[in-house]
């Protein structure tokens, strides 16, 4: 299997982007720019950690990568690298660095870039065991489970499914990379906005009914919200 | 003596932080506690005005931090309470003149001789808020029963939790029982439902608060005021007393009429 040029996954404070260590730098960064532009919603405002492996990246290259991200409203907050040259470049650009050896680094999973399909590959997700308050945004290239509430003003964006074991009142976007089979589940479903892939719904105002767990999914090009009791 | 630092914050402006700070300061002092209130809203000071101490200011918070005055010199004693002091904010500087570490150093010194150090946080989530948060042992979050105020309270609650100063307790200010009853105002239950915080006080809307603030005699000193009583209750809960929440609808005048209208509130 051909090595993926870039692999993106959600981490605690933003997104981790692992760049190929062997392909031409220009090609890799062009590809990254295209990926970001294509899925601007998914990336919006994220903190980016870039994983560069063993590739020595000179300052001008890293600086252009930083500029590329910043032009798209993203912040390059950390560089993970095994190369001394790369770390020096990062330091001179005042970007935090982490020296991660290849074995400690989370192994890039090539299948991640394809839409997540739970049946075939087994999938991964991120668990947040707290209430997400206004202003907090979480991303994942896998699924997201929140054990707590998602308050108005908080955002949850996942390439896969989103499960809220609590009250959902904020913004959620499941299947953010285009997967229309993604679902959103919540114990109390009243999101300010709910998106699945390219579809969007808002909650009807003043939904004063009995609170029951619900699931949202896409059928016939629209989002259906259905009770699960 | 190891005093306790309590920061009063809100996120949104104009919800009653400064009024709450002034009233809690006075209530705690009237309960026999030694209290210092600090106005951390540098550049936009007004705690001194509400406490009626504006014309006594000689030195301010920035003077202390920058070494132009001794701590003692800068503490303004309240007209009525021997053990209540104010450290005013500077009017001419901005929030960057003080760092969070300066506030920790200052409050550590004050802890030795006082029971409570109340810090009136500025609105917003920037440096001024950080200054007020850093030394806090406990944070009281003031909010109004309005969606925008609750949203901001939620935002700063997240920041307070991230700074490991949480969870904080809630002062719900300017509740109008008659509007809650009609479903036109968020109730305390609605607010708690969103924020998931414990309530330390519910302060009813009270016209006396405005005139009290304008005259520099905080409303707690007025025994006729419902809001004043509610602030006194917050102070008593702060020192660990178990005070039941008052029924906002069963008092004389206006509130009695309300009670007749809305039985069982």
Describe the protein in words.
Chain A is of the alpha/beta class and 229 residues long. Chain A has two domains: 6-113, Alpha-Beta Plaits, CATH 3.30.70.260; 118-227, Pectate Lyase C-like (3 Solenoid), CATH 2.160.20. Chain A has helices spanning 25-38, 40-43, 59-71, 84-92, 118-121, and strands spanning 6-11, 14-19, 47-53, 75-81, 96-98, 125-128, 137-140, 143-147, 155-158, 162-168, 171-174, 184-189, 193-196, 199-201, 214-219, 222-227. In chain A, the strands form three sheets. Chain A has a six-stranded mixed sheet with strand order 6-8-10-12-15-16, with no helix packed on it. In chain A, strands 1-2-3-4-5 form a five-stranded mixed sheet. Chain A starts with 5 loop residues before the first strand and ends with a strand. Residues 101-112 of chain A have low confidence and may be disordered. Chain B contains twelve helices and eight strands. In chain B, helix 1 (17-30) packs across helix 11 (226-238) and helix 5 packs parallel to helix 6 (127-133). An eight-stranded mixed sheet of chain B has the order 3-4-2-5-1-6-7-8, sandwiched between helices. Classes of the chains: A alpha/beta (229), B alpha/beta (265). At the A-B interface, loops of A face helix 7 of B.
What key phrases describe this protein's structure?
heterodimer, A: 229 residues, alpha/beta, Alpha-Beta Plaits, Pectate Lyase C-like, six-stranded mixed beta sheet, five-stranded mixed beta sheet, 5 helices, 19% helix, elongated, B: 265 residues, Rossmann fold, globular
How are the SSEs ordered, and which strands pair?
The complex is a heterodimer of chains A (229) and B (265).
Chain A: E1 6-11, E2 14-19, H1 25-38, H2 40-43, E3 47-53, H3 59-71, E4 75-81, H4 84-92, E5 96-98, H5 118-121, E6 125-128, E7 137-140, E8 143-147, E9 155-158, E10 162-168, E11 171-174, E12 184-189, E13 193-196, E14 199-201, E15 214-219, E16 222-227
Parallel strand pairs in A: 2-3, 3-4, 4-5, 6-8, 7-9, 8-10, 9-11, 10-12, 11-13
Antiparallel strand pairs in A: 1-2, 12-15, 13-14, 15-16
Helix pairs in contact in A: 3-4
Chain B: E1 4-9, H1 17-30, E2 35-39, H2 47-50, H3 61-65, H4 71-74, E3 76-77, E4 84-87, H5 100-111, E5 116-120, H6 127-133, E6 138-143, H7 147-162, E7 169-175, H8 177-181, H9 188-195, E8 198-204, H10 207-215, H11 226-238, H12 254-261
Parallel strand pairs in B: 1-5, 1-6, 2-4, 2-5, 6-7, 7-8
Antiparallel strand pairs in B: 3-4
Helix pairs in contact in B: 1-11, 5-6
């Amino acid at each position: 299997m051909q090595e993926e040029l870039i692999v993106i996954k959600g981490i605690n404070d933003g997104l981790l982007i692992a760049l190929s260590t062997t392909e031409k730098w220009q090609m890799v960064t062009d590809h990254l720019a295209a990926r970001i532009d294509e899925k601007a919603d998914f990336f919006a405002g994220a903190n980016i950690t870039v994983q560069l492996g063993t590739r020595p990246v000179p300052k001008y290259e890293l600086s252009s990568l930083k500029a590329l991200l910043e032009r798209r409203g993203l912040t390059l907050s950390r560089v993970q690298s095994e190369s001394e040259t790369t770390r020096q470049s990062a330091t001179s650009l005042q970007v935090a660095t982490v020296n991660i050896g290849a074995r400690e680094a989370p192994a890039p999973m090539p299948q991640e870039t394809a839409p997540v399909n739970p049946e075939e590959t087994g999938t991964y997700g991120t668990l947040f065991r707290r209430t997400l308050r206004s202003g907090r945004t979480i991303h994942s290239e896998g699924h997201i489970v929140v054990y707590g509430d998602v308050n108005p003003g908080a955002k949850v964006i996942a390439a896969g499914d989103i499960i809220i074991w609590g009250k959902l009142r904020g913004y959620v976007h499941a299947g953010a990379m285009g997967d229309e089979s993604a679902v959103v589940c919540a114990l109390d479903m009243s999101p300010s906005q709910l998106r699945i892939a390219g579809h969007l719904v808002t909650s009807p105002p003043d939904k004063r009914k009995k609170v029951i767990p619900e699931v949202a999914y896409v059928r016939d090009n629209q989002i259906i919200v259905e009770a699960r009791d | 003596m190891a005093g306790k630092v309590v920061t009063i914050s809100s996120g949104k402006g104009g919800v009653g932080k400064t009024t709450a700070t002034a009233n809690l300061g006075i209530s705690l002092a009237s309960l026999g506690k030694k209290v210092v209130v600090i106005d951390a809203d540098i550049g936009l000071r007004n705690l001194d005005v509400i406490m009626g101490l504006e014309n006594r200011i000689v030195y301010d918070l920035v003077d202390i931090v920058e070494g132009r005055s001794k701590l003692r010199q800068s503490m303004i004693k309240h007209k009525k309470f021997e053990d209540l002091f104010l450290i005013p904010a500077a009017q001419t500087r901005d929030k960057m003149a003080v760092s969070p570490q300066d506030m920790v150093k200052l409050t550590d010194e004050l802890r030795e001789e006082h029971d409570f150090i109340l810090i009136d946080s500025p609105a917003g989530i920037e440096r001024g808020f950080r200054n007020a948060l850093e030394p806090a042992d406990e944070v009281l979050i003031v909010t109004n029963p309005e969606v925008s105020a609750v949203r901001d309270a939620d935002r700063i609650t997240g920041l307070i939790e991230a700074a490991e100063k949480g969870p904080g307790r809630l002062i719900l200010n300017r509740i109008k029982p008659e509007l809650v009853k009609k479903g036109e105002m968020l109730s305390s239950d609605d607010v708690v439902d969103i924020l998931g915080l414990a309530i330390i006080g519910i302060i009813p809307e009270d016209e006396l608060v405005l005139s009290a603030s304008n005259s520099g005699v905080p409303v707690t000193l007025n025994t006729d005021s419902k809001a004043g009583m509610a602030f006194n209750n917050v102070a008593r809960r702060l020192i660990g007393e178990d005070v039941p929440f008052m029924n906002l609808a069963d008092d004389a005048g206006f509130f009695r009429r309300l009670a007749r209208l809305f039985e069982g509130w």
